[in-house]
Amino acid sequence: MAKQEDIFKNVVSHAKEYGFIFPSSEVYDGLSAVYDYAQNGVELKKNIREYWWKSMVQMNENIVGLDAAILMHPTTWKASGHVDAFNDPLIDNKDSKKRYRADVLVEDFAEKIHQKAQKEIEKAKARFGDAFNEQEFVTTNARVIEYLAKEKEIRERLGRSLGAGDLADVKALIEELEIADPETGSKNWTEVKQFNLMFGTKLGASAENAMDLYLRPETAQGIFVNFLNVQKSGRMKVPFGIAQTGKAFRNEIVARQFIFRMREFEQMEMQFFVRPGEEMKSYEYWKETRLKWHLSLGLGKENYRFHDHEKLAHYANAAADIEFNFPFGFKELEGIHSRTDFDLKAHEEYSGRKLQYFDPELNENYVPYVVETSVGLDRMFLAVFATSLKEETLEDGSTRTVLKLPAVLAPTKAAVLPLVKKDGLPEVSRKIIEDLKWDFNVAYDEKDAVGRRYRRQDALGTPFCITVDHQTLEDETVTIRHRDTMKQDRVKITELRGIIENEVSMKNWLMKM
């Protein structure tokens, strides 16, 4: 546990030191759970967004984009159920005065039990080697069976209690499991209470006439209220999807874990409209497709798993999370939900306007069902960044800190380094940059010895370093160094574009799906 905490501290420290993420308003001592993306962070975030958009919109003929406003008519949130049901169950510790999400406390406890089962499996795998049959072991080993049954029992009871609004039983479960305050170990808990997460604001020139509004807590409703506009103007045929990226706002009382849970965050969502009765087929398709997208980045298959929801939201008939192994354990990275026809029907009811599709093949009108994929861009950033940050011991016994970002996402694709700041080498370096910058984000670095410059670029996640030396003046060749292997090749300047393109093109990465 201490090791995981140290890893996480290194992630937060590295993000600040190398210009990825800063605490917001830091000169005024910051603002809790609000962060600014710095010069390198904004590039990495943009690249993740574009990688998603390319795969979701550009590569699908029947999916189009949208950029809906953050401010929406307040009835939108009544219709969607957010005004009445967008709550988190919170619990306070009387001794530490700390506040926690009650459901997260229980889920974390259940996860620890799951990890105990995994340790037993890993030990057996190491003991039996290639002869190990994991499925047989899981179904026959008494200790593993006990752990997994206990985990299942806890999760199912939590789901039933939350689904029924039985907060007293949630507290009873916390007490029965003897769950303690993670920071102090105290088990002196208050009752569990619901807390609405929406931020309120005002629209109007004067206080007397101002309209009460909300900052949107999700981007999905902007898609639903524009369903018919997009369908008609784009002549879209069911099945089709509408994708959107954008800011959302939640008044998270217990926002923690760096950018994993923030009050202002960005979502990448797609709502896929299908015929009623075909939603489960589409649901399974998008579960598989979205996992393939994540795996294409090469962060390790073992770092992902599906978690089916025990408690379904009021709009869903099926829901699963793609969970990722963050430095603090497996947590939700993306949700895939079958939302039925709840949203469109609710907006029909509250607006008095029909939001139906005429299906020419069936010759009938109906309200489509919806399958949603929703991934947090900030969580995606954290997953990529934390997994890529490595401390390596080299053959000579020295160490290096390297950010092994997927090259397609790296903020800077190549750094051009003149060996010395004279003899015309900076001029040649600048000429190379002038040529490459039309296609790639490239940097120039002439400060310090070339070895230190390599280390700096390693820590920034730059896939290539291009060194210009005196031989370059003779034969127009340069040394290109690969970040991950530190291998160096002598190549012609004219070959640089092709070498970089081969490693960073979205096409080559997305073809892995």
From TrEMBL:
This protein is called: Glycine--tRNA ligase
Say which enzyme class the record assigns: ligase
Domain of life from the UniProt record: Bacteria
Q: Which UniProt keywords apply?
A: Aminoacyl-tRNA synthetase, ATP-binding, Coiled coil, Cytoplasm, Ligase, Nucleotide-binding, Protein biosynthesis
At which positions is ATP bound? Answer: 250-252, 260-265, 332-333, 376-379
Name residues in a coiled coil: 107-134
Enumerate the catalysed reactions: tRNA(Gly) + glycine + ATP = glycyl-tRNA(Gly) + AMP + diphosphate
Q: Where does substrate bind?
A: 101, 218, 265-269, 372-376
Q: What does this protein do?
A: Catalyzes the attachment of glycine to tRNA(Gly).
One Pfam match, by short name?
tRNA-synt_2b
Assembly with partners or alone: Homodimer.
GO function terms (MF aspect): glycine-tRNA ligase activity
Q: Which gene encodes it?
A: glyQS
